[in-house]
Specification:
The structure is a single chain. With 80 residues, this protein is an alpha+beta fold. The protein has helices spanning 14-21, 53-58; strands spanning 2-7, 34-36, 46-51, 64-68. The longest helix has 8 residues, at 14-21. The relative contact order is 0.32.
């Protein structure tokens, strides 16, 4: 999966984002959901979304940015 940053109407839902971007539910990590990125200025309407590689390539650059890396976060070293 890849992270993309997209501009959507204020208060967008995951279902609205999928329709607006022309994606299918299979191409989107619905467990991750749609994340409002700029809580300080929500009127900017920037959202984060995890999508498949193919979907990330199809998203119109005018709608967003990315794909961005999404490395797995794991603990460093042995458990203490």
């Amino acid at each position: 999966m890849f992270l993309v940053t997209v501009r959507l109407p204020p208060g967008a839902t995951l279902a609205q984002a999928i329709r607006h971007l022309g994606l299918s539910e299979k191409e989107v990590d619905t467990g991750y959901g749609l994340v409002l990125i700029d809580r300080v200025d929500p009127d900017r309407s920037l959202y984060g979304l995890r999508v498949s590689e193919a979907a990330a390539r199809r998203i119109d650059p005018a709608a967003g940015e990315g794909p961005h890396s999404d490395p797995r976060i794991e603990p460093y070293g042995p458990p203490s």
